[in-house]
Design a protein that fits this description.
By secondary structure, this protein is α+β, with helices and mostly antiparallel strands. The protein is 30% helix and 21% strand.
């Protein structure tokens, strides 16, 4: 079994921050996503490697264990040890030195759109997936394992999912293919970046009769150039011509629930902010409530004035 260099897979240093790791993951995942590279097996395999590396390096406990393993493995190589002779048993998830086990994959976790593939043998051995224990029943170590083992809960998985701001407003659905099963995951309206959606029992199977872990979808809301979000409030800028700003009128404003006509009062100043109550994001915790929508007025000055228009403006200026 080969050692997997997850830092190299994501192209980050070993002292990279969580933000740097997440940024590298998003960039690579978009580039190699199967939906972008239809039919490209090499890109699909690369996508699997990227997802696996992020599963480890984005989890503080897994990363700590991985760094300890990496240091131990590096010392082993420096002393002239051969990779095939490295003692993996002491790093096996839930195991310790002296236990000889074989591991099989827990199946295809997949990505959020039905692709992604199983984790490597390295990942399954070190971080989970320890199904199919095979001991010689005559081995006394097997008897010790049978009498001393206790139920252990399976590992949790985390998977990032991107949604648009419009989907965050309306709620969204993603389809997950796991072990040949089609799971429909609903992301609630009002979700923010960092919101977690839990799928109970869809993580790594438990050991010795323990409960399975959970799968958490971690939401990332993609920025929308039309709007700025602050909590449940939304902010936007709308252009208003000089005449409407001076004399008053109505202007069409796009919102996530559809366009609305905003009343502009006479002599509205450039940069003035108007509020549309209840036109912001739905509240994740308080069903039926919404934030507000704030519109900043951007007064656009006319160009190409006729002599008559210029004369009228001069008269206004001179009082």
């Amino acid at each position: 079994m080969d050692y997997q260099d997850y830092y190299k897979v994501l192209g980050v240093s070993k002292d990279a921050s969580d933000k740097e790791i997440k940024t590298a993951y998003r960039k690579l995942a978009r580039k190699h996503h199967p939906d972008v590279n239809s039919g490209d097996k090499q890109a699909e395999e690369r996508f699997k490697e990227i997802n696996e590396a992020y599963q480890v390096l984005s989890d503080s406990e897994k990363r700590k264990k991985y760094d300890q393993l990496g240091a131990d493995y590096a010392r082993w190589q420096q002393t002239g040890g051969r990779p095939g002779d490295f003692d993996w048993s002491q790093w096996s998830s839930g195991g310790g030195p002296g236990y000889q086990r074989t591991y099989t994959s827990t199946g295809d976790l997949g990505d959020l759109f039905g692709r992604g593939g199983a984790f490597s043998d390295f990942f399954n051995r070190v971080f989970g997936g320890q199904t199919g224990y095979q001991f010689d029943p005559s081995d006394p170590r097997y008897q010790f394992q049978q009498t001393q083992s206790r139920p252990r809960r399976g590992q949790d998985y985390r998977q990032e999912v991107e949604i648009t701001l419009q989907e965050a407003y309306n709620g969204a659905t993603r389809i997950l293919d796991k072990d040949g099963r089609r799971l429909e995951v609903k992301i609630p309206a009002g979700a923010k970046t960092g919101t977690k959606v839990r799928l109970a029992g869809e993580g790594t199977p438990g050991a010795s009769g323990g409960q399975p872990g959970d799968l958490y979808l971690v939401v990332h809301v993609v920025n929308d150039p039309r709007f700025e979000r602050k909590g449940d409030d939304l902010y936007s800028t709308v252009q208003v011509d000089l005449y409407t700003a001076l004399l008053g009128g109505k202007v069409r404003v796009p919102t996530l629930s559809g366009p609305v006509m905003l009343t502009v009062q006479p002599e509205t100043q450039n940069g003035q902010t108007l509020r549309l109550r209840g036109k912001g994001m739905p509240s994740l915790r308080h069903k039926g409530q919404h934030g507000d929508f704030y519109v900043k007025i951007d007064v656009r000055l006319p160009t190409g004035l006729t002599p008559e228009q210029r004369e009228l403006l001069e008269q206004m200026r001179d009082g």
